[in-house]
Design goal:
The mean pLDDT is 94. β12 (271-275), α11 (279-293) and β13 (300-304) form a beta-alpha-beta unit. The radius of gyration is 27 Å and the shape is elongated. The longest helix is centred in the C-terminal third of the chain and has 30 residues, at 360-389. It has helices at 24-42, 58-66, 71-88, 102-118, 140-150, 181-190, 198-209, 238-243, 245-248, 257-266, 279-293, 330-349, 360-389, 407-412, 415-423, 428-449, 451-454, 461-482, 487-496, 508-511, and strands at 8-17, 46-54, 95-98, 121-131, 136-138, 166-175, 195-196, 215-216, 218-219, 227-228, 231-236, 271-275, 300-304, 307-310, 317-319, 356-358. Strands 3-2-1-12-13-7 form a 6-stranded parallel beta sheet, sandwiched between helices. By secondary structure, it is of the alpha/beta class. The chain binds ligand ME8. The site of ligand ME8 has 19 residues, from β1, α1, α8 and β12.
Length: 536
């Protein structure tokens, strides 16, 4: 039972199609949400972190057929791949939704009834283009324009992905999306941070300003989908079904007091995190659907860029694909960097809003510089010295020692607040910089204060205790701040310095106040946290 005395923080990933195994791109979005979910738990929120699988539609049905399976059987066979990878990458989701589950069927059918009542639904017939890989409709004008630009000579290709289109002619229900243009523009005007980062908002706004067409939301030419409750010749268009998952997971359409309390507590969501490819579905269609049925709108949609593979010869980012032979599997990166190094690299070296060019050489560089040489090295030096000079323990605070000035406590002042300003907005690169400033300063401090020399003079015992205490305190605070990125390492560091009671912290600001290190507590030196990667 959720503790509803804490504020709710509801964050979602897209639900991924089960036509392919999870890959570096889907893992990127999922880790990005995980970091935010873990951060919010540290800030005392009651978090619900939702991910899942999108199992209906032509694309999934085709994938099943290609593998000689029934669609449901195929989806069931794919679920373990997603669940296993998320476990391996330390994804702390609280729920995993599949669109073939009874709760989704019930909720989508409830949505149909509400739509029918709203007056924004009508029956008609669709005659136009459809891209199966994108599960998207395109108008004649869009297709003609793209074909002219591409010189496709009679073949009609998808304006977005360039793959061949299908001609669809069928009876269909339509959602009156065109009626929402003004209300959507008003939303963007009144809530400029509804779409993040800013430049994506401009893209969405100009799309809507260009005019909206009604959307076909049911299909009659195939049947792998949720039946329309009042017309069972029709199945739900896969996006109309998929978007609804966000409401399903928090109890929408369930007539029990518990479900209604959950819905009231959780909805609206704070963040839908998506890739830039599906921004229109989340920033145009989804809010219009919610407006039609009178539900509150999510607070933010954060659209991140795409991961590209850096071509070492040209220095340019290229789309990842099997046919180019440049696709990188998540397991390859885990093998190189370990899970925590994997998370750290993608979250702190790729700016979340923009496309990011990734490469193995850059991964090694970041790992060695930040994790092996800076963070790992600092922890190992400080714990070793503490153990060596203080009989296997953290030094006691020496009341005789008066000089309390040190550069580290100054840098640490207000650090949790500076870090949070960035974490709140998913600015992970900048948040990491705030922590690494303290880590780098601590490494310099070791050199400048030369504890190994101080240790030789018994008259300087107070000074030695102070130096080691300062280092351990900087480490304690950094470990807390790095928890969302590398939860296992941070927990291990806190354990090694005898602070395991702090591992499940729910008040980051309080934990990061300087001066809380316990003295006389046993320390464990342990193995290197991040062994340096040798040059291949
Ligand atoms: O669109 N870089 O599912 P999908 C970064 N089922 N992220 C990437 C990426 C890349 N190269 N490639 C994919 C769907 N992604 C729908 C969603 S939600 C109601 C329904 C990520 O399996 C990114 O988050 O095609 C993108 O938006 C998502 O995978 C698309 O996943």
């Amino acid at each position: 039972m959720a503790d509803r005395s804490k504020p709710s923080f509801f964050i979602t990933t897209p639900i991924y199609y089960v036509n392919a195994k999870p890959h570096l791109g889907t893992a990127y979005t999922t880790v990005l949400c995980d970091v935010q979910a873990r951060y919010r738990r540290l800030k005392g929120y009651n978090v619900k972190f939702l991910t899942g699988m999108d199992e209906h539609g032509e694309k999934v049905e085709e994938a099943a057929r290609q593998h000689g399976m029934e669609p449901q059987e195929w989806c069931d066979s794919q679920a373990p791949f997603f669940k296993r990878l998320w476990e391996e990458l330390e994804i702390s989701n609280d729920d995993f939704i599949r669109t073939t589950e009874p709760r989704q069927v019930r909720s989508v059918q409830y949505l149909w009834d509400r739509m029918q009542e709203s007056g924004y639904l009508y029956k008609g017939s669709y005659d136009g283009w459809y891209c199966v890989p994108e599960e998207t409709y395109f108008t004649e004008t869009q297709v003609t324009k793209a074909d002219e630009e591409r010189h496709t000579e009679g073949q009609h290709l998808c304006p977005d992905c360039g793959r061949p289109l299908e001609r669809v002619q069928e009876e269909s229900y339509f959602f009156k999306l065109s009626a929402f243009q003004d209300r959507l523009l008003k939303l963007y005007h009144e809530h400029p941070d509804f779409v993040q980062p800013d430049f994506r908002m401009n893209e969405v706004r100009s799309f809507v300003e260009g005019g909206l067409q009604d959307l076909s939301v049911s299909r009659t030419s195939f049947d792998w989908g949720i039946k329309v409750p009042f017309d069972d010749k029709h199945v739900t268009y896969v996006w109309f079904d998929a978007l609804q998952n966000y409401l399903t997971a928090v109890g929408y359409g369930v007539d029990t007091p518990e479900a209604q309390a959950e819905l009231a507590f959780r909805w609206p969501a704070q963040y839908h995190v998506v890739g830039k490819d599906i921004i229109r579905f989340h920033c145009v269609i989804w809010p219009a659907m919610l407006m039609a049925i009178g539900e509150a709108l999510p607070e933010h949609v954060f659209a991140h860029g795409f991961l590209m593979v850096r071509n070492e010869e040209t220095g340019k980012g290229e789309k990842m694909s099997k046919s180019r032979g440049n696709a990188i599997a998540p397991q390859d990166v885990v093998e190189l960097l370990g899970v925590e190094g994997y998370r750290y690299y993608f979250m702190t070296d790729v700016t979340p809003g923009e496309d990011g060019a990734i490469s193995f050489s850059r991964m090694e560089q970041v790992y060695n510089a930040d994790l092996a040489n800076s963070w790992g090295n600092l922890v190992s030096r400080a714990l070793n010295m503490s153990a060596k000079y203080f009989d296997g323990k953290t030094p006691e605070d020496d009341p005789e020692w008066v000089s309390r000035q040190n550069p580290l406590s100054q840098i640490a002042q207000g650090i949790a607040q500076r870090y949070s300003e960035h974490m709140d907005k998913i600015e992970y690169v900048q948040a990491k910089d705030v922590v690494m400033e303290l880590v780098h300063a601590a490494n310099h401090y070791v050199e400048d204060s030369a504890p190994w020399t101080v240790a030789k003079d018994p008259a300087r015992a107070g000074e030695l205790a102070d130096i080691i205490r300062n280092l351990l305190e900087a480490i304690r605070i950094s470990a807390h701040l790095l928890t969302p990125f590398m939860p296992q390492t941070s927990a291990e560091v806190l354990r090694r310095m005898g602070a395991e009671a702090e591992v499940d912290c729910e008040d980051l600001d309080a934990a990061c106040v300087w001066g809380q290190l316990a003295g006389g507590v046993e320390v464990t030196k342990g193995d290197a946290l991040f062994p340096r990667l040798a040059k291949k």
